[in-house]
Amino acid sequence: MVGNCLSQLIDAIRRISTSNVHLLGFSLGSHVAAFASNYASKKVKRITGLDPALPGFATAANENKLDSSDADFVDVIHTNAFMQGTPLQSGHIDFFVNGGIIQPGCMQEGNVLACSHHRAPIYYGESINSVPGFWGWSCSSFWEYLIGRCWKSGNQTIMGEHTDPNMRGIFLVITNSQAEYAMGPYSNTIRNFIKMNNDKLQQIAQILLKDVKIISIK
């Protein structure tokens, strides 16, 4: 219903062509943006999905959730995959930030998952005026990254407001643990990142197991 209403607003603004419309959606809003684009008389130019929601959409068909067919260009930022956000490729280009699951600096927060989930819009907001920018290197798939096979790739592109609409695929991004988060183009940071992530994955596993126990108790 929300997507339908938003599509009517888009069509009602006659002076603005859908070819100039860029929709941003956070969590559930990512899927709402997809619905709005499909309900409109013509699909919008761009949709940015900020950690698209996983709950309720894990097994949904592509037409019922955000995917690359929903706009001329769909870019997605993943920050809490497998938890509140989807781990699946959902756009023409998908950025998995700091491993895409738990964000640096969030382990000290009261709600690790919420902190990580909400980093997606924070990163995007910073990207608008960031001088160094959020840069990522290409990876054949998120699963290849998880088994440590994506550290050698040299292709880079920028994430956020200024993402190249001609780029395609999956990219891995590193950030600082606090603002300013953007680190600019990578050089020798990849090896350090992979080493750091090996330690962090153990912490993530503990969180996953804890959540599984909570779910089983409920």
Automatic annotation (TrEMBL):
Q: Which residues form the Lipase domain?
A: 2-162
**Entry-linked Gene3D superfamilies:** alpha/beta hydrolase
- Protein localization: Secreted
Which InterPro entries does the record match to this protein? AB_hydrolase_fold (IPR029058), Lipase (IPR013818), TAG_lipase (IPR000734)
Give UniProt keywords alphabetically.
Answer: Secreted
Q: What is its main location?
A: secreted
Q: Source organism's superkingdom?
A: Eukaryota
Question: Has keyword Aminoacyl-tRNA synthetase?
Answer: no
GO molecular function, a single term? lipase activity
What GO cellular component is one of the record's annotations? Answer: extracellular space
Can you name this protein? Lipase domain-containing protein
